[in-house]
Design goal:
The chain has helices at about 1-30, 30-40, 45-75, 85-110, 110-120, 125-155, 155-160, 175-185. With about 180 residues, it is mainly α. The longest helix is centred in the first third of the chain and has 35 residues, at about 45-75.
């Protein structure tokens, strides 16, 4: 679990850092013509890099959420006193998954605009398309930043997770005694 969470936090931290830099880039240039002149050359590649990292982040976050869900279900079976803490962590993880999914969906819609910027002449692109493009990236990047902040707040809870359940089908059975009775038959 620690390996998955460590890789996930690195991917999400990278997405959050790239988001801040990308927001500075796209909102730092106010002139639409100058923005298109600079950004058109690498618009498609930026979207592709964000999509690759977003796919990995969504898959890892979903896996972590499912691990939390299973752990909460196991704790409820044995009536553990830690179930509330893990339920809270599971709920936060589910919300993070929702944020990542929203930004992932926005990134899948953005090629409509990035392809215009990459393949069309900048004079053919409308100002409203550039504004919509910037707003969509703003939504995606805010989702990444919120998800990263929320994930950082529950990072300590991951260390407490033991993937082994608190019970098994042999609990209460002495295995040495079970082995000796099996040999007598």
């Amino acid at each position: 679990m620690n390996l998955i969470n460590g890789f996930y936090m690195n991917i999400l931290g990278c997405l959050a850092g790239m988001s801040v830099m990308h927001l500075i880039l796209i909102f730092g240039i106010f002139d639409t013509a100058k923005f298109l002149d600079i950004y058109c050359r690498f618009a498609k590649n930026v979207n592709l890099v964000f999509l690759i990292f977003a796919n990995i982040a969504v898959i890892l976050c979903l896996a972590i959420t499912l691990i939390y869900q299973q752990r909460v279900a196991d704790m409820r079976k044995v009536l553990s006193d830690k179930v509330d803490s893990f339920q809270r962590t599971y709920t936060i993880s589910s919300i993070i998954t929702l944020f990542l999914f929203v930004s992932w969906a926005v990134l899948f819609y953005l090629p409509n605009y990035t392809n215009q910027m990459f393949y069309k002449d900048p004079k053919q692109i409308k100002g409203s398309s550039v504004t919509t493009f910037k707003i969509l990236y703003l939504i995606a990047h805010i989702c990444y930043l919120v998800a990263w902040c929320m994930s950082s707040s529950i990072a300590e809870a991951v260390d407490e997770i033991c993937l082994e359940p608190d019970y098994d089908e042999y609990s209460g059975v002495d295995m040495d005694e079970a082995d000796t009775t099996a040999g007598e038959n």
